[in-house]
Write a structure and sequence with these properties.
By secondary structure, the protein is mostly helical. It contains 19 helices and five strands. The chain has three domains: 218 residues, MFS general substrate transporter like domains (Growth Hormone, Chain: A, Up-down Bundle), CATH 1.20.1250; 88 residues, no CATH class; 230 residues, MFS general substrate transporter like domains (Growth Hormone, Chain: A), CATH 1.20.1250.20. The longest helix has 37 residues. It is a multi-pass membrane protein.
Length: 543
Amino acid sequence: MPPAVPGLLSAPRITTLCASLLVAVGSGTNYVRASHPTLAAYSPQLAARLNISHTQLNIVGLAANVGVYSSGPFWGRIVDARGPRIPLAFSFVFLFLGYTGIRHFYDAGVPPDSALSSLSMGLLIACSFMTGAGGNAGFTGAVNSTAKSFPDRARATTTGIVLSGFGLSAFFFSTLAHILFPGNTSLFLLLLACGTALTTVLGFFFVRAIPLAAEESEHTAVGTVAAEAEATIFHHINDSHTPLLDEEPPADVTEEYVSEARGIELSPARSQSAVRPISHSRSRSRNKHDAIEGPNIYGRALWLDPDFWLLFVNLSLLSGTGIMYINNVGSMSQALFAKGNPAYDEVEASRSQATQVSMISIMNFFGRILIGLISDSVKNRFGLPRSYSLVLVSTLFFFSQLLAAQITDVTDLWKASLLVGLSYGTIFGLFPTVCIEFFGLSHFSENWGFLSLSPLAGGNLFSIAFGRNLDAHEPGESTAAAARAVAHQCLEGRSCYVATLGLTGTACFLAILLSALAAWRERRKLIAAVAARPRVVWEDLEN
């Protein structure tokens, strides 16, 4: 007799969830260089100790980003085929060696009148790359195991919990270091090396996919095969052969129609007779969206699927907006602080910047959990695909940019940071589960790895636009303002960057339209799935 499948809230599933959350907390320290404060917490000190320029420092940070994004499809393919243990083992090695290497360079330093050698610079970049690739390896294994351990009705909520740990990672380590050894950069880097590696060790033993019951493991366009089969009205005519299912569904079939059709009984006259199925008038087609097994799109088919590019562009626009704001909220804060302030204080400006980063990180954490609860509720209670929640997420981002463009006082900037952090958390809490709905669970991690390449495009484009906008408003050396200007500090307040917010606001409005298109296409898939249902003919067993 096969062993019993653990229940939804059983110890094995909860253990996997908690262990995956712990791995995520240790994996997110380099997710996006400036969207979390980890690198910002030691990068100025690192630059000073090694006598490297801001450009070189940015290259070091970019290496971590490249490690995250470029390794996604690779780790995803391994996790889909072999499970989470291999990536978790690599995560331990990469995170420990990466942060230990950076600490070594920091402790060694260079003499004040010397420069870092090309070889040492290359090794430093390699260490930064390893921290990004290692963090993504652990995170991929954690999210994949969680997604496969919980049924569809709870998948967005549980993966949202794991994703929230990823979003809070850098804030957690930075705060812990500030409490234990404030101002000691060397010990902070040691904490990162040991703390992130330890979480992957625990994950190696406790993170695993827990099998689902057969009725919960099926993933179809309407949730289950039963929902599709019941999306019809049973009727009886005085004929010995009565089609149970019409040849074509009603023209106005909707998700509500599918869900409300459940449980319809045969008429009393019909139910008094014994019935049995005798034939199927059409065979069920097996294609990229199989009605029984759900979608299973990957590899070349993924890149040729228009839905992939629809989600890719949408995620690029939204995440690019978030990355641009988070990367540059410090500059925005300083510009607002310097506006009309002759007693510019770098310390006070830095405190305001730290407030914005902390606000973004905390709301990022809550946003990932919140969108999981909302999208699960939308699907389970109203029968709507999770892609409908994309419209909500895009709208949040749009209003965040409108709000940021209106703020002229640095004391009000936290409002925009709160909304951006919440919006940024919701996109990365929602898109992985939408990826599963569109392309299936079997190759989820590989597909998500490709889809998560999209922030590179939007993030770089909008960040470069912000930098050029800011540079165009820097005071000239001949101006009176330059006499009190901090190096490369724009003194015009909101005017320093508002044009870029107009660009990102437009991008978010386009994302709203693309989100609506994605939801419409998913609805069309549902209708097509209902139309393709089998036709069952019943025969009365009457004398």
